[in-house]
Design a protein that fits this description.
Helices cover 83% and strands 0% of the residues. With 452 residues, it is mainly alpha-helical.
Length: 452
């Protein structure tokens, strides 16, 4: 993410990378059409019926090809309707097929995971990025005489996915045997029917998290450059979010089990919220006061343009963590109607704010829209979950939270003029996390025991 992806942006500049980032985000908008729950269906049923699922792989592969046609047609049609220039179609075409290969790699991994071949699953999960690091890293940092363009990155990345796809196909064939690709209507119907509510949610979430950069690039004359500024800040938020996602993935099976056994989840919920949300807030405040210093560690250009939106996006990360926890509980509860309703409202709010703010504020308009949207979604999910769990207001916890925020904000404000302020701010965050018991190791160990 930082050595390669950020390195590419440093080489090609904000405008060239911004156009690529916009098209990549656009290709993500409807990529759920390539899956529609197939991977979850496969992982579950391969583990339960390994002999039966071996003969289904060809039928599901046939459905995958049909979904590729649907996904590609819709993506190109919308690209035409919103006015993408024909010159970007070749790159978009590559990105569409790249999404297909990514989905197929995930599909092969679901088979390997279902057959409990976890080492092969782990190998396939990192193979494409491992090759990318070597190939692209060589061109970026060691090759001389190469005028690196974004097309180099796109084609190298695409080739890595194709190679991983072929390796995955071979691994599955070795463990399953010969397959015959076909389309089975009954199996396809069952998968799509059972997964439709989750697919709708994923589409809505993808739209209001990825549509920002697409709208920014489309609505402004220098939109591609503005997207480049946005991408520099969002890349760090993306990295933080990956770590937070690991925690939510741990919580989902725990919540599901406790709900099934009708156990009280309130204590676990409060502990998880304090660990993730308070921790995210400390990180956000640190990023706000040290935005330029952090970005300068990664990028060589456009820091003054990317730092202000990054400061807004840092607080967006707090709302994203709230959504992770509360959304994970609602998912475990099976409350798909509430989740889809909130996501639909979030999409409407996001699009309307972008339409209003982008012409006036450019990249800052997108950052503002993202912050407001994520906050609205987070607050809505909090209201729904608090009503379900009947979580009571706790004065002591609220006062502790306010003091925690005041200590961090006040401390960093006072340290702002110090020569080593970033180091002091980092120490302040670490001390605050310990003193306010944001990280409770005993409770975390209890989570692991609960999972077992």
């Amino acid at each position: 993410m930082f050595a390669i992806d950020a390195g590419v942006q440093n080489k090609v500049g904000a405008a060239e990378y911004g156009l690529y980032y916009s098209l990549l985000s656009f290709s993500y908008l409807f990529n759920i059409l390539l899956d529609l729950g197939i991977n979850n269906f496969t992982t579950k049923n391969v583990a339960q019926h390994p002999n039966l699922m071996a003969k289904y792989i060809g039928k599901i592969a046939g459905l995958r090809l049909l979904l590729l046609v649907l996904y590609g047609t819709i993506t190109f049609l919308i690209a035409y309707l919103i006015g993408y220039n024909a010159s970007v179609y070749p790159m978009l075409f590559v990105l569409i097929f790249q999404q297909f290969f990514i989905s197929m790699i995930a599909y092969f991994r679901s088979y390997l995971s279902g057959m409990l071949l976890f080492k092969l699953d782990a190998l396939l999960s990192v193979l494409d990025r491992l090759i990318l690091i070597f190939l692209c890293g060589y061109l970026l940092y060691f090759s001389t005489g190469v005028d690196f363009k974004i097309q180099h990155f796109v084609w190298i990345q695409f080739s890595c996915y194709v190679f991983s796809f072929l390796v995955g196909l071979i691994l599955v064939l070795v463990n399953i045997g010969k397959i015959r690709v076909a389309i089975n209507k009954s199996i396809s119907f069952i998968i799509i029917r059972d997964s439709l509510p989750y697919a709708i949610l994923i589409i809505l979430m993808a739209l209001f998290t990825r549509v920002d950069s697409v709208m920014l690039e489309r609505m402004l004359d220098d939109g591609a450059t503005q997207v480049g500024y946005y991408a520099q800040g969002f890349r760090l938020i993306d990295a933080f979010f990956v770590v937070a996602m690991l925690f939510s993935n741990l919580l989902l099976p725990i919540f599901s089990r406790m709900i099934k056994l009708k156990e009280d989840v309130v204590d676990l919920f409060k502990m998880a919220s304090k660990l993730l949300v308070w921790g995210a807030l400390g990180l956000a405040i640190f990023c706000f006061w040290n935005a330029k210093e952090l970005l300068q560690l990664i990028y060589t250009n456009d820091i003054e343009h990317s730092a202000p939106p990054f400061q807004f996006l840092a607080f967006t990360f707090v709302s994203m963590c709230v959504v992770l926890i509360y959304g994970t509980y609602l998912t475990a509860l099976g409350a798909m109607k509430q989740l889809n309703s909130i996501a639909a409202i979030g999409l409407v709010v996001n699009v309307l704010l972008n339409v209003i703010l982008i012409p006036k504020m450019g990249v800052m308009g997108v950052a503002t829209s993202t912050l407001v949207t994520q906050t609205c979604v987070a607050f809505s999910q909090m209201v729904v979950v608090n009503r379900i769990l009947k979580i009571r207001f706790e004065l002591k916890s609220s006062i502790s939270f306010v003091v925690y925020v005041v200590v961090l904000v006040g401390g960093m404000y006072l340290l702002n003029e110090q020569p080593l302020k970033t180091v002091y701010d980092l120490i302040l965050v670490a001390l605050s996390v310990v003193l306010f018991k944001v990280i409770d190791l005993k409770s975390f160990v209890q989570i692991l025991k609960t999972k077992e």
